[in-house]
Every structure is written in C-alpha cells, then in structure tokens.
Amino acid sequence: MLFPTTIAGSLPKPGWLAETHKLWPKWRQDGEELARAKRDATLLWLKLQEDAEIDCLTEGEQSRQHFVHGFVEFVDGIDTANKVAMGIRNNRYEAIVPQVVGQLRLKGRAHATEARLARAHTKRQLRFTLPGPMTIMDTVKDAYYGDRIKTAMAFADLLNEEARALEKDGIDVIQFDEPAFNAYTDEAAGWGIEALHRAIDGLKCKTAVHICYGYGIKANIDWKAGLGNEWRQYEAFFPALAKSRIGQVSLEAMHSRVPARLMELLSGKEVIVGAIDVATNLIETPDEIEAVVAEALKYVPKDKLILGTNCGLAPLDTDVAIAKLEALGKGAAQARARHG
C-alpha cells in the first residue's frame, strides 16, 4: 500500500482514566481499578485507530503519565522523591525532574503488559514508542555518572533491553522519540546517533526515530516563534541519520516552517511525514493532507513515504484527536487515488 498511515505515539487519555489536556496527568484511580482503566483505554484507542483507517497503530501511551517518565519509573538508580528544577531542551524551559543517583538498571519489564495487550487485540501492524537516550538524559538530573554521554549510553543499554523484549512481544516497529535532537543539533549528529545505535543493537524489526518541534504547549510555541521563517534544525543531523542504521525518520511538516527539501537529506530512509498539526484544534482536510504528500513526493520516493502526525496528540480533546485521525485516513486514501 502506498502512503501507509501511523501516529507519533501518544493519544489523549479519557477523563475516566486521568486528567485531560495535560502532558503529565494525575490518574483517576489506583491499584486494580487503574490497571483496568488503562486496559480499557488502550483497547478503545486501538478500535478508534482502526475505524479511522490507521495502518500502523500504537497503544496510545495510555499506561504512561509522560512519554519519558513512563519508562524511567521502571529504572533503578533514579531518585523520584527528591526532584530538582532543571533547564531542559537547551534551557528552553524549566522542569522538575528526578535525579540519577546510582547505577542504572531495569527493575524488570517496563511495557510488557500494554504491548502484549495491544498485540492480542489487533491484526494490524503495531508501533511502540520509547524515549530516546538523548531525550531521557535531558529530562533527568545526573548526580552519578558525571557525564552527559555516559548517562545517555547507560539509558541506551536499558532501552535496548526493553526493545529486544518488545520485539519478542510481536511489535513491528520500535520508535525512539528524540525531541532533544532539535535542541542539541551538533551532538545529535554525533553521539546522539551513536546512542540510538546502541539502543537498536540486535533488533530485527523496523526501527524509527521521531524528531519534532514538540507538543502544542506554550513553551514550544514560543520557541518556534523565534526560529525565523525557516526551521532548519533538521539540516544539521539528517545527513548523519541517512547513513545510520535507523530505518524510519519521523518529522514535522503540516503548518511547519521546515523546508520540505530537507527530506532529500534522508535518502534511502522511510520518511514519516507529519500531516497532522498537533498544536491546533482545527481539523485538517483531505486536500490539505494530499498537499503535504504532493510536496513530500518531490523529495521522497512514493514507496518510502509514510503519513503520520507532527507529534503526539495527548494534550488535545479526545473528539478533536479522533477527527484528526479520521482526516489522516481520508487524506491518505485521497492521495493514493491521485498518486497511486
């Protein structure tokens, strides 16, 4: 199939599961009730994605409060009780973060429950998202390793351990989310990709890296407002990614100031083009999505082009997210009819 559809990862949590419109929501239940609510939300979103004709599904990160800390909570060597304030994403904004206080080790499987649940309830392809090593490193305070690269590589080893297990659970695509790449572009082209290679070592399934300009929160919107008429951060590390062992690269396109020609720097890779804007409640039309496809086809072979979302949909209204998924499915169908 031409132009298969997928999403960056997260989807809104229903109000009966957690607070809405928040990136780090509080759960509504605890214990067994919370476990059941997470399961029900996961199954609901699998069905809604199928109804919207999304081809490669995710579990919507319904079991995680936050895309980074949902993994970090399964790691020993992290002090979550004594959090500290720290500038993240190259000091774009300040966050209250846990501290690395000892050697990092996985306590056990991080995401077996939700991965196996999703695999048992859909025959479609499944994408599973994990935070990238650089982004985790940039979202915790290191008080043990004393070196950013050593910290990132230690997390990469743990990510690899979980990724290998996810592959055995039947996951088709394992994606690493690296918004920090756009904040540390020179480092991304060097040890950032080395850390990704460490995280995917030994995997036979497809691998992906998602690099966007962030959720539609004020800090990110304000940052983008100061980036000028062209956002060229991708240019610094796309050539290195083209030479990497990562199979797919997910990038932002809809209502973006990223020059489309930068996709040409990803020669040989499958490119997941963000055709849904996560920073607005406006619903894209099939014509708008087809226009993104037409522009991308100037630089990406049609058999390498995948349609996705600019970033996760977590902070949006559920109804808005559903409508955007439906628009993505319809837009892809229209693009196939024209370009197939």
What does this protein look like?
There is one protein chain. With about 350 residues, the chain is an alpha/beta fold. The protein has one domain: TIM Barrel, CATH 3.20.20. It contains ten helices and ten strands. It has helices at about 30-50, 70, 110-120, 135, 150-170, 185-200, 220-225, 235-240, 285-295, 320-340; strands spanning about 55, 75-90, 95-105, 125-130, 140, 175, 205-210, 250, 270-275, 305-310. The strands form two sheets. It has a seven-stranded parallel sheet with strand order 1-4-6-7-8-9-10. Strand 6, helix 6 and strand 7 (about 205-210) form a beta-alpha-beta unit. Helix 5 (about 150-170) runs parallel beside helix 6 (about 185-200), helix 6 (about 185-200) packs parallel to helix 8 (about 235-240) and helix 9 (about 285-295) packs across helix 10 (about 320-340). It is globular and about 55 Å long. The protein starts with about 30 loop residues before the first helix and ends with a helix. The model has no long low-confidence stretch (mean pLDDT about 95).
Structure keywords:
single chain, 340 residues, alpha/beta, TIM Barrel, globular
Shape: globular
The third-level CATH topology is TIM Barrel
Rounded radius of gyration (Å): 19 Å
Continuous helix count:
10
- Any idea of the CATH class? Alpha Beta
Query: What is the distance, rounded to the nearest whole angstrom, between the alpha carbons of the first and last residues?
Result: 9 Å
Task: Tell me which CATH architecture applies here.
Answer: Alpha-Beta Barrel
Note poorly predicted spans: none
Largest sheet: 7 strands, parallel
Specify the structural class. Answer: alpha/beta
> In total, how many beta strands?
10
Strands across the major sheet, in which order?
Answer: 1-4-6-7-8-9-10
Mean pLDDT: 95
